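Exercise 7. Given the encoded structure of a 461-residue chain, write a plausible sequence.
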């Protein structure tokens, strides 16, 4: 089979990272091999994100750059196909196809299992009419996973595994329910099979993914339904799977069984991303979050009781329509009371088609910017304090790759902190193993440490 080159550019969340890897798996039987640059690609896929503004503009400008490459290639007698996938494609696919004739194919997040077929159609249209206009944006998700290939490329020591897709929560600011569709959970047996395959291929840590991952309710194979806590317990039985994470959770779906799993399963890493968005009950209600600030505190308290070393991260939106100074202060109070190891924070960005976008009381841009700066200052202070408190501690680090200097390895702490480790002249390859590391210093974006085990012990293992 002729070799072809595939370049995928991924935007947005981890679910897109997982999807991009699966797209490569779907296309591998057609002879496509990954290439790092679009210049030498026969097929370029942009896997897009629609969560905040300017997403479509970014895609159009990338498509513009690709058009030049495409034309160059055509002049040389070759061909480059350009496909746009992901959430922008889902939301604006037909319009994109009209506006940018250099796009050959548009496909949504639930359609990529059909890529071989879709590419075949696009190529035929191109040859017959000189222009392809294939758009595949059907949102029915239930078949997708069944039709993905069993064969998959190894995903590395730390890998993503999508267990749940879509969202039924309809937070009033969010496009996800419209681009990813309704909630769907993969059956337990499928998830276990994929996790076992990953572990056979060398994966040590799995991050379970879902737009609303703890709404997971998968078929348990016995006529019942398993929640996320139960799924994690089953995964923890897999030999060689040392670390389990999950993201992104909704406070509303944190149940007692999941909290108990944090207590009972040491392989769940003590780090949880639990978006709260705002600390004001009025704004939380307007956002249709269906929880209060008090409920968030209660959940955090229970999680800390179950797993005292747990650290939290979160997402925040400032400047939601109608947000007053007092509402914003409530967010700041929550941040100070909870204490976060890290967090993402955003200015509210109206998304077409979502209820909040049509509200009258939009907050002026300069107010949003000022609030964001205050919030980010505090979040950064907390993150720095959390990192500083790591110094002197011994932490298990999953060593993933060589560092910049000889004898140095880079890995992740349980808290997702990047750690450069001086392993000195330790014999053997430690990559893919979890080692105790004594943290010596905080650098700008990472920690630095040295192996805390005697060299002879490490070598003997
Ligand atoms: N404006 C700003 N931030 C948003 N997010 C989602 N939608 C919007 C929006 N319209 C943020 C939320 C969410 C994260 C993934 O992106 O904080 O948790
Ligand atoms: Fe969007 Fe809310 Fe669903 Fe998260 S829970 S994906 S913010 S609608």
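Solution.
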């Amino acid at each position: 089979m002729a070799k072809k080159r595939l370049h995928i550019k991924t935007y947005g969340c981890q679910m897109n990272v997982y999807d991009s890897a699966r797209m490569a798996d779907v296309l591998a039987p057609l002879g496509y091999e990954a290439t790092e640059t679009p210049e030498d690609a026969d097929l370029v896929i942009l896997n897009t994100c629609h969560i905040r503004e300017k997403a479509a503009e970014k895609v159009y400008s990338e498509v513009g750059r690709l058009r030049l490459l495409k034309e160059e290639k055509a002049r040389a007698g070759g061909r480059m196909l350009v496909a746009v996938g992901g959430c922008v494609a889902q939301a604006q696919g037909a319009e994109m196809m009209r506006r940018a004739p250099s796009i050959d194919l548009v496909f949504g997040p639930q359609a990529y299992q059909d890529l071989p077929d879709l590419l075949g159609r696009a190529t035929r249209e191109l040859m017959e009419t000189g222009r392809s206009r294939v758009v595949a944006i059907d949102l029915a998700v239930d078949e997708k996973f069944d039709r993905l290939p069993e064969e998959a490329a190894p995903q590395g020591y730390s890998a993503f595994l999508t267990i749940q897709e879509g969202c039924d929560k309809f937070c009033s600011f969010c496009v996800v329910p419209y681009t990813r569709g309704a909630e769907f959970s993969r059956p337990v047996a499928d998830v276990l099979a994929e996790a076992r395959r990953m572990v056979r291929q060398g994966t040590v840590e799995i991050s379970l993914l879902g737009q609303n991952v703890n709404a997971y309710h998968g078929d348990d194979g016995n006529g019942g339904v398993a929640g996320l806590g139960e799924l994690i317990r089953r995964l923890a039985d897999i030999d060689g799977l040392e670390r389990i994470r999950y993201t992104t959770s909704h406070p509303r779906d944190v149940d007692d069984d999941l909290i108990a799993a944090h207590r009972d399963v040491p392989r769940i890493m003590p780090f949880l991303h639990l978006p709260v968005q705002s600390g004001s009950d009025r704004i939380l209600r307007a956002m249709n979050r269906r929880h209060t600030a008090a409920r968030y505190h209660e959940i955090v308290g229970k999680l800390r009781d179950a797993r005292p070393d747990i650290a939290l991260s979160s997402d925040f939106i400032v400047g939601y329509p109608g947000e007053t100074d007092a509402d914003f202060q409530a967010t700041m109070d929550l941040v100070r009371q909870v204490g976060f190891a890290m967090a993402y924070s955003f200015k509210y960005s109206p998304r077409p088609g979502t209820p909040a976008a049509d509200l009258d009381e939009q907050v002026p841009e300069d107010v949003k910017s000022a609030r964001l700066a205050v919030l980010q200052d505090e979040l950064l202070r907390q993150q720095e304090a959390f990192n500083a408190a790591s110094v002197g501690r011994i932490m298990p680090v999953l060593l993933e790759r060589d560092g910049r200097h000889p004898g140095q390895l880079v890995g992740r702490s349980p808290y997702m902190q990047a750690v450069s480790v001086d392993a000195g002249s330790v014999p053997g390859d430690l990559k893919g193993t979890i080692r105790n590391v004594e943290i010596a210093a905080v650098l700008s974006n990472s920690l630095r440490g040295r192996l805390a085990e005697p060299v002879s012990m490490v070598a003997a293992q």
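Remark. Residues 51-52, 173-174, 275, 277, 315, 317, 346, 348-349, 351 surround 5'-deoxyadenosine (ligand 1) (CB under 6 Å). Students should compare their own answers with the one above.
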